[in-house]
Each structure stands twice: as C-alpha cells, then as structure tokens.
Specification:
single chain, 534 residues, alpha+beta, D-Maltodextrin-Binding Protein, domain 2, Dipeptide-binding Protein, domain 3, 3 domains, eleven-stranded mixed sheet, four-stranded antiparallel sheet, 17 helices, 21 strands, globular
C-alpha cells in the first residue's frame, strides 16, 4: 500500500499552486477554481496520440470536436452545425459553426481534415486510429501503404468537412467525438510535435493549457475565445494525479480536492454507506482483463491461456475483494453494451473452482508443463490494480505447485507503454469502449496495431468483424459480432475478469455532475453551489 498522505503534507506540497486548496473556498477567486483528482499522470496531452481515459478527461476541457458527450455520455453535435448523410450511408457532410482557436485564428474544416490525417499517419502512433478504419482508405494509410492525404476526409471549404466511409456506420459520431479533434495547422507547421507544450499549445475548447508540472499538477485557464466563456463557473482548473485513490478520497473529504475521478474499488460499499452524497455511480461498459502476450512462449499456446483463465476465481474477486462493487465477467463484451449478442457465457462459469483447477492443470500438462518443467511467468499491473494482483497470483499457484507468477507493479504510463511495445508476459488491462460492440471487439482485428496488446489475430475473426460491419440489418449485425466474440472466448487472448461500474467521489457543492458510463464530465458543465448562475 502506498504510504498514507497526511493533509498537512499535501497542503505544503501544493501551497505554491493555491492556498485555498486546503480549506473551503472563502473568496470569489477560490470559489472559481476547480481542483480535480484525475487518477493517473498523463503520458501526453496531444489529443491525436493519447489513449488513457485520464488523458481524455483533460482533452474534453481543451478541445472541441464535431461532437461532444451529453449527460449520458452519448455523442451530440458540437462544432457540427448541420450533419447530412448520403442515402447509401457512405458520405457524411458536416457544416461547422464559426469558432476560433485560443490565439484568435479561425478553426476550419481544413484543421479537422489535418487532425484526422495526422491520427492515421503511422509516424504519429495514435492508439485509437485503428478503431477508425471505417473511414475510406484508413487501413491503407495506417499501415503505411498509402499517404495520409489519401484518407477519405476532405475540406470542401473552410466550414464544410466531408467524410467518406468504407461501409455504412451509424456509430460514426462515437468515433468523431474527441479525440477526433482539429489540428491547429498554423502552430503545428511552426512547432511540429512541440505544439502541445505549455506556452505553445493553442486549443479550441473551454480551457487552455497554462502549466504542467510533471507528477504534480496541470493548470488550465478559461479560453476567452471559447463561445460561452462568460458563462463558465470556473476560471481555473487544476488536475492532480491521484494514483493513491485512498488518499485522494481523504483529500476530497477534507476539501483539498473538489472531486476524484475514481474510488478505491475495495471500499466502494463503505463509502456509499458513509458518504452517499459524495458517491456517484453509473452502469459501466468498462471491461478489465489479464492480457496474454500471444506472440511470446508459452502464451502462444492456447492451452496455457485457457488453463490460466480457468483458474481465476472471478466471484471471489468481485464479492470478497471488491465487496460487490464489480461484476464477474464471463464474456468479452460488457452486459450493458447496446446491441450485445445474447446468450454468450463461458461454459465453466458455474463449475466449482476445484474442478476448474483440475481442468487447468490438465491443460497445462498437455502443453508440456509439470514438476519437471514448471510454468514461471510475470504478471504486470498498475497501482490501481494492486488489490487484485496477489489474488490472481494465488489463484494460479493453486493450480499446482509447479505454477507460479511473479508480480511486477509499475507506474501506469510505464505499464501501458510496455503493453504497447509487447514487452510483457501477462498484464492487467482495462478498456472503456464507446457504446457499440464494435468498439469492444475491434482491437483484435489484424489492422489495429499496437492497441492490440495481446498481438492475437485470426483471419476468421477478421471475416466475422467485416461481415458485422456491412450488415445493415441490426439482428444480422448482432449475430456476426456474436460470432467474433465467441472466437475470442475460445482462443482466450485475454482472460476477462470483471465489469466495473463508473464511479466518482464529488463534493456535494459541485453541481452539474452527471455520472455516465464514460465518466464524461467536462469542467465547463460544472459549477460550485455558491457561484452557480454568476
């Protein structure tokens, strides 16, 4: 457990930032400053590269796209004033509202086209471009077989953007909500990749980046060019990395933070009972799993993957470790996902653990392991997953004396960088997909790239996904995604563990917070009760 952070020590550490953070706001200036605990330290604030939910939280404050998220986390038009779709569903045309970057330069359709082209450029190494290959020529650009300017996005004029698709995709708005945001070409052409540095970055959202002190805080200030800036309740927003969720909850209760974006999962029930006015919960789409590196022995053998998955006591994780705050998971897609194929569930879900351990041992012995050839491997995880790691370690050790896992805890940025690089045996991973089965399954398509941490691919899976994409009938589409999901369940490139709800811990005087599956609550929608309406 990370050492407890006492309130006085926290106040001393952040006194250089703000003296009001350690007490209730007592001046108008204090009241108009928002302090947000944000879980992890961002690896980047570049919207076309980022991949973490904690990074997207900040991006929603900095950037405005064609779409934004409403109170339910669903995409609704933002800078897209009008949207027209061709009869065949392949051509989408967006007319933009006239807006400006924070330095006064106009935001144009050319900036949106440049942003999408940059995401698909292999040199950018975007984490999420792989799920956007619905855009015409996207796969070829992402693989390096075609130039970025051949992507199916065209600026018809300064305020009209056209997007061509490979197949009809009603879920396109889910893709075009951030991170599909415009690129300030006038800054990128001068500063290149350094355009995101404090003092250089321009943005078109409600806030601009003023300061970033690594592992300490990120400061945003209101963007005077933002339409509606005069109605913002908060002039300044601070984001703090809060990897120790227990300490972050104490800081919120003490008034040092206004909110924290997550709860320590093992304490959810107690916090709900003690502080119901602080706890916000919504059904979640997040799935959490153990990723197997399927291109590294012995995890290239499906029997090893199946055996280790069988041995995990998911009910113990959910009921005993997490106190019911999570739900055991027996398939690849969260049960709350719209359009979910019905009836899929691992056959062993209701078998007793003793029988499952015997099956696991038999599978591992069939793969060549036993007393004379023990199975030794590493399991990488993050601080937020620390409570589960020793339980998984014990579950695997209970298969047989010749099975053991070494636990390695890493900072989240380092951990996910190693997953992307394929430098691991097994590792914790969590994913919050948008509200369509495609987003829960796409990462195993052959064209996805580094976001497929397991590196597992299969032409039959690709074919099932392709059939689902082109299916116009909703039931046919649902069935084809079910085919793809069934393959994942059998091949086990990952051992799904649980489905988590979306939680936050918010002081009662912060108004406008609406918990949703994606945890999308940009600062522009929030107020403090004392300043609301000013």
């Amino acid at each position: 457990m990370i050492k407890d952070i006492l309130r006085g020590g926290v106040c001393a550490a952040i006194a250089a930032v703000t003296l009001s953070a350690c007490s209730a706001p007592d001046t108008e200036e204090d009241a108009r400053t928002l302090h947000r605990g944000n879980g992890q330290e961002p690896l980047t604030l570049d919207p076309h590269i980022m991949g973490g939910t904690w990074e997207y939280t900040i991006a929603r404050d900095l950037f405005a796209g064609l779409y934004k998220r409403d109170a339910d986390g669903l995409p609704v038009p933002d800078l897209a004033q009008t949207v027209t779709v061709s009869q065949d569903g392949l051509t989408w045309r967006f007319t933009l509202r006239e807006t400006r970057w924070s330095d006064g330069a106009p935001v144009t359709a050319h900036d949106f086209a440049a942003g999408l082209q940059r995401m698909f450029d292999p040199a950018t190494r975007s984490e999420v471009a792989g799920m956007m290959t619905v855009i015409e020529n996207g796969a070829a650009v992402l693989s390096g077989d075609a130039a970025p300017d051949t992507l199916g996005v065209t600026a018809i004029d300064d305020l009209t953007l056209q997007v061509r698709l490979n197949f009809p995709a009603a879920f396109l708005p889910e893709l075009l909500a951030p991170p599909a945001v415009p690129l300030p070409r006038h800054m990128f052409e001068v500063h290149g990749e350094d355009w995101v540095r404090p003092g250089v970055m321009v943005s078109n959202g409600a806030y601009v980046l003023s300061e970033w002190r690594s592992s300490n805080y990120i400061r945003l200030d209101a963007n005077p060019q933002y339409e509606g800036a005069e109605a913002l309740c908060f002039d300044t927003v601070f984001y703090y990395p809060t990897t120790d969720a227990q300490a972050a909850i104490r800081r919120v209760r003490a008034g040092e933070l206004d909110l924290n974006s997550e709860l320590p999962i093992q304490n959810v029930a107690a916090l709900q009972a003690q502080f119901p006015e602080f706890v916000h919960r919504a059904p979640g789409l997040q799935t959490t799993e153990v990723m197997f590196n399927t291109v590294r022995a012995p995890f290239d053998d499906v029997r090893v993957r199946q055996g280790l998955s069988l041995a995990i006591d998911r009910r113990f994780l959910a009921e005993e470790v997490a106190g019911g705050a999570i739900t055991p998971h027996w398939r690849a897609v969260a049960p709350a996902m719209p359009g979910l194929a019905p009836g899929l569930r691992q056959a062993y879900a209701d078998e007793p653990m003793e029988a499952r351990r015997e099956q696991a041992a038999a599978l591992l012995q069939a793969a060549g392991f036993g007393p004379g050839n023990p199975l030794r491997f590493t399991y990488n995880h993050t601080p937020g997953n620390a409570v589960f790691a020793p339980v998984l370690q014990q579950d695997w050790a209970m298969i047989a004396p010749w099975v053991s896992a070494e636990i390695i805890q890493q900072d989240s940025a380092v951990h996910y960088a190693q997953l992307r690089a394929g430098d691991f045996d097994t590792g914790f991973s969590g994913w919050v997909p948008a509200a369509d089965p495609y987003f829960a399954l796409f990462m195993w398509e052959s064209q996805t790239g580094d976001m497929n941490y397991s590196r597992w691919t299969d032409p039959a899976f690709d074919a099932a996904m392709e059939a689902a994409k082109f299916a116009l009938d909703p039931q046919e589409r649902q069935a084809r995604y079910g085919d793809a999901e069934r393959m994942l369940m059998e091949e086990t490139p990952h051992a799904f563990l649980y489905v988590g709800a979306s939680y936050a811990f918010v002081r009662p005087e912060i108004t406008g917070w609406t918990q949703n599956a994606l945890g999308a609550n940009p600062s522009r929608t929030l107020c403090r009760a004392a300043t609301s309406g000013q």
